[in-house]
Amino acid sequence: MAARGQLLVALVLLALAASSSAGSSGGRNRHRAAKAKAKPAARARLGLVRAAPDASLADRAIDDRHRHAYISAKLRRPAAAAADVGSSAFAMPLTSGAYTGTGQYFVRFRVGTPAQPFVLVADTGSDLTWVKCRGAGAGNAAGEGGGERVFRPADSKTWAPMSCSSDTCTSYVPFSLANCSSAASPCAYDYRYKDGSAARGAVGTDSATIALSGGHGGAVDGSRRAKLQDVVLGCTASYDGQSFQSSDGVLSLGNSNISFASRAAARFGGRFSYCLVDHLAPRNATSYLTFGPGGPEDAASSSAAGAAPAAQTRLLLDRRMSPFYAVAVDGIHVDGVQLDIPSDVWDVDKNGGAILDSGTSLTILATPAYKAVVAALSERFAGVPQVSMDPFEYCYNWTAGGGGGEPEIPKLEVEFAGSARLQPPAKSYVIDAAPGVKCIGVQEGAWPGVSVIGNILQQEHLWEFDLRDRWLRFKHTRCIQ
């Protein structure tokens, strides 16, 4: 979620701004790893190649740092999720937002009666689903750019406003306004973003129209639709800044009492899954966000005989990490060798830990892990001419190679508890930053602090969040349906 054309995912409460800024500034003081003994080539300054107008990797990195500060500031909010077992499944189309210049993934979502269609950011770090809106007692939509889609509560027969004195508003709505002039006043929220943009509105409930899936493969049957009732929905009636130009709002996939993911999963088997196509994939490369059957185990069972089973590790639905999904990391390996990273980095009790976040593009590693990873990878590229390219510390003139064609990229693996290993494709951690230029695509985060596995490292994998039994399952696949 970005300024300058990318919806900024780093929602920061004004009261926490000082804390967030401290975390962000700590991340900027990056350690420079020891250089290779070979004499380095002269560095050339290269301009960033923009994915779309007003978008760049530097923009995405800044947004990721803002989000990392937001994550660090928010990891003390309690949450719990119900888990009633359903018998069906439904799916929503999911695409990369690269065509808009953002580093996010978009999902198509229909809300209201009659249903009104929207394109929302799929965000595992959000607890409130909201859409741009006109009406609902919080004013009329106001922002830059006209002709965009907006939700009109007055046109929906199933919209029900929420009062500011309600239990849900006072206990679970993030950034809700404390002032309540009367018990019947709307449940209002005021999001302020690090780039100066803001989103303000009122909360209510409405129904979402869903397309039921057929079988275990997650395929959508367009003729079978159903209504999911009482979806908690924010009606963003006033906004400003550049943060909201690429989508119509946010679909909350976080671990929270009021998130869409928690409530929908409770109705459909206690689990949801998504498959992230290549982050640079075109608009027509579609995968699905699925609730119920359709995850890695189902995909493996419906594929050809001999298919590799899905890996799984415990999903840590820790109150201290809510609304984010935490996992236990046992280590990181490069070419089969485990890196020397202190175990405290992965320990929530030692102010560390790791989360998976679909709203962060680049993976952010706490300082000790970052140092170890970039040192191991850059050592393999000692003979490749380096170039300078913000925001990365290690970038290379890939076309120059090392005298014997393109350099070989070492194999990176993230080992989770239970011996489950994420083996991302090389393009997920040594990324294309410009024609002929590749960069080690990780960022440094403050230590102590949480590490974030971003959506680029998650790409081309099917991920299942089993909220009922607390498992995270994943399997490599190209994702395109």
From TrEMBL:
Active site (catalytic residues): 123, 357
CDD domains assigned to the protein according to its UniProt record, in alphabetical order: pepsin_A_like_plant
GO biological process: proteolysis
Keywords, sorted A to Z: Aspartyl protease, Glycoprotein, Hydrolase, Protease, Signal
Pfam families in UniProt: TAXi_C (PF14541), TAXi_N (PF14543)
Sequence ranges assigned to domain Peptidase A1 in this UniProt record: 105-475
PROSITE patterns: ASP_PROTEASE, PEPTIDASE_A1
GO molecular-function terms, A-Z: aspartic-type endopeptidase activity
Signal peptide segment: 1-22
Keyword Protease: yes
InterPro entries on file: Aspartic_peptidase_A1, Aspartic_peptidase_AS, Pepsin-like_plant, PEPTIDASE_A1, Peptidase_aspartic_dom_sf, Plant_Aspart_Prot_A1, TAXi_C, TAXi_N
Similarity field: Belongs to the peptidase A1 family.
Protein name, per record: Peptidase A1 domain-containing protein
